[in-house]
Amino acid sequence: MGILIAVLAMNQFQINSLHKMMNQNHSSMGQIQNQMPPNSQVQGVTTGESAEVIAAKILPKGVPAGYGADLAVSFDNASAAINVLAPFEQDTRADKLEGENLERYIAIGSQIACEFCCGARTMVNQDGTKACGCAHSAAMRGISAYMLENYGNDVSDGEILAEVSKWKASFFPGPTVEKYMASSGQGGSGSGLQTQVGGC
After folding, report:
1. pLDDT in tens, 113-135
2. Which residue, 183, 176, 179, 186, is CA-closest to 47?
3. Phi/psi class of residue 197: alpha, beta or left (left: φ > 0; alpha: ψ in -120 to 50)?
């Protein structure tokens, strides 16, 4: 029963994160603020719109401010970003996260999962090791670790989690749109969109 409650709570958080992304034109994240190009700013979703139209409104676009230029990654080329972000994850590093950064990494990774390809319920286990071996999850853990080390004093766990959520949406555009449509009471599917970008 406790596991079921935890899973439901995590799913609700992710749905709320999608709604928040929909309702904010700009999020105040200091140097790492992700400012989408004007043509991808969310204008609100109308009932009955196609998955493609909704995708254009809710999926992140362009180069993330701050770290995007530093790492040469873009939401528009999520497949290539996987190879850049994944090496920063805890499990593949020689210089492991420690102390407060490790605690934050575990807290963030415990609130989101790469459930669309592997069914995992979290990104990390309670000790910070990976809970899923897929490349998408590695990249999501990687951006979390990178931001903690490079922007940790300037951003909250919630802001890092929001950035991880954006990459998850970029890796799984079809399922992300379907989840949003279901959460907003709309029928239809994201079948016209890619199920996943890059391999597992």
Report:
1. 988 877 789 999 999 999 988 99
2. 186
3. beta
Beta bridge partners of 124: 130
The dihedral sign for the CA sequence 156, 159, 165, 171: negative
- Nearest-angstrom CA–CA distance, 66 and 71: 9
**From CA 188, how far away is CA 145, in angstroms rounded?**
36
Confidence of residue 189 (pLDDT cuts 50, 70, 90): low
Distances (CA, A) of 148 to 53, 72, 100, 109: 34, 18, 10, 12
Query: pLDDT-derived band of residue 191, with 50, 70 and 90 as boundaries?
Result: low
* Chain-centroid distance, C-alpha 147: 13
